[in-house]
Amino acid sequence: MTRLLRPACAAGALTLLLAGCQLFPSGGPGQHTIHAGAALTVPVSQPYQGTWTVTALPVWATVSKTSGTGDVAFTLTVNRGAGVPVNATATGLTGTLALTWKGRDGRMGVTTWPISALNYRLSGQVTSGATVQGTQVQVRSAAPVTTTATARGVIVTYRDSPSGLQAQSRGTMPAERALSTLRAGGIAVGRAAPLGARSALLRVAATEAAIAALKADPQVLSVTENAVLRPQATLAAPVVPTDQFAPLQWTYRLVGYPAVWRDMATTPYTRPVTVAVIDSGVRYDHPDLQGRLWRSGEGALDVLEAVVDTAGTGNGDGDGPDTDPTDPLTPGRTLGSHGTHVTGIIAARWGDNGATPDCPSCSTTGVIGAVNTANVKVLPIRAIDAEGNTDVAQVAVSVRYAAGLPVVLGGKTYTSPHAAEVINLSLGGEISAATAQPMCDAISEAVAAGSLVVVAAGNGYNETPYYPAACDGAVAVGAVTLSGASAPRRATYSNAYPQVQLSAPGGADYFQTPTYYNGATWDPQGDGSPEPFVDSVLSTGWDYTKNLPNYEVESGTSQAAPQVSALAALLLSKGITTTAAATLERLKATATDLGEVGRDRAFGVGMINAAAALGAPAVSDTLGLRLQDDRGRAVQPPLDAMGRFTAYVGEGTFRVIAGRDRNANGVYGEVGEPRIERQAVLGPDTPTADVGELTPQ
């Protein structure tokens, strides 16, 4: 992939520049080949008289200087991680650097230089011990014999037709010979029993001395531990929703909900929980939200004044604060309903949604929400106007109201009859801490009242704290998306800063770098021509052009935050936790650590894991590898038949995790799953590393 920089002699893409500029290689910089080898940086110098500009580079390279007059001179820096393919099988990177130039004689042209770099090599082997499935023993390991305290003796096997032993009983010979060998070495043996014509079981500690003594006999073919095997519990079947668009909702699979929904089939999630969604309001008439919302008279509230937007056209309904938080149709409105989308992620109903015949385009099953059959309802609070804006004061009022505290609007006091145990804020902005203080004060009051306040970390593509996510007491949520490997990656738009506490699926940036790793397809035209579905979040929405319900694709930390809010509500509904503080600790303790070990600015403590948090049953049991660097970039090298792998990667500290996947999300070695982790540091000084054998425990 080539990144285009500003061309010197023509506007537009590089292809236009090449076609529109006269190419006189003899009048420009001479030919040059840049090979970085294993280095991170390499100086580049070429004599020249005239002006020059670097107009194109591979995505994995940068230069210290992009233009100049006279000799071409700059330092090229290699960022291998940006160019390594997901399968990590490329031993090196290749590309071209393009220079546009203008000589003293006025001639212009383009010269291209090939550039290359070697990737670093990381290898190892993933193995598994013996497992029992029913009555069949399967050994999936090439591991050598180890000595453990849990082995029940050792098994010795002799060679065929051992010399000098033909006259003895073949049934007793192995046991007697093994006993004699061990006693001669002064090793105490409990008893021995024949296992066949050539093998015997010896009830002796599987020590190095015992194994070495038996192996010293030239007639011995092998000595192995009599390993302890245990029957495996029958796996529960993951729940696969049948709603029309559920196959497109990959975010739930990524955090282990198929196991959680199986748990719901046998375990009550009966404690009533309210999740307040402070947003643009909601479409009560969306069929997939029927019965999942508190309505007017039950606590729902619109906090907006009659005129609050920058255009001065009113907030959409124009009647000021009231108990109807419907996200309204306004003249010329085309964008969908943000609040309806966020609400559906949490609580969209399953199965037949009762769509009426007067909406022939409506799906009768639609999408699904995380909470499924749990006793969870959403309290809509409208604080964002028709232009998509709100302000500090309105957010502060909404947070206090959501927590069950009284607020005064238009001279009238409002108190919610359903104080929210969880408050979701998929909003925020790049403002100062001082400016945000009223919101932070409101969050502190809500926390004191017993609410867990979950806030989107922001979509600024930077490391600037957004508020109210960065307020003390708020749970700032970053976004992850699919990477094509078994570990998700941080979404490029997701702000990274110290206050980020957790991450959740928010989807890829479908405007700048769309990806299609989820594997689902859809037929947007309805003509039988399916297309790959983008790695974004599908949920309930509203078509304001037709004034009808629909289902919309969005990406952002706005979509990640309700994933955390939904899981928090389920912890409370099942009764695993009973307080906001305990709920947050459970979310953190069961999160999947990504990026650097422990908490970091990009992921917080990690991505939420619904299956682990809720103690859901195992619905899968597969062995695999998770490999990513300390910046959260993941790769997936193939494993051969013996579990060996070789990954060609960039510089950095790499976490190499072998583990089992018990919740069918394709992420190996999460909390509560067998795992083993090793680290390797790769760079110019250590271009290769072997982490050895990895056997999850």
Molecular structure report:
By secondary structure, the chain is of the alpha+beta class. The protein folds into four domains: 2-118, Sandwich (Immunoglobulin-like), CATH 2.60.40; 151-225, Alpha-Beta Plaits, CATH 3.30.70.1510; 246-589, Peptidase S8/S53 domain (Rossmann fold), CATH 3.40.50.200; 620-694, no CATH class. 16% of the residues lie in helices and 28% in strands. The protein is built from eleven helices and 36 strands. Strands 17, 18, 19, 22, 23, 24, 25 and 26 form an eight-stranded mixed sheet that branches. Strands 1, 2, 4, 6, 8 and 9 form a six-stranded mixed sheet that branches. A four-stranded antiparallel sheet has the order 14-15-13-16, with helices on one face. A hairpin with a 4-residue loop joins strand 31 and strand 32. Helix 6 packs parallel to helix 9. The protein is globular, with a radius of gyration of 32 Å. The protein starts with a strand and ends with a strand. The relative contact order is 0.12.
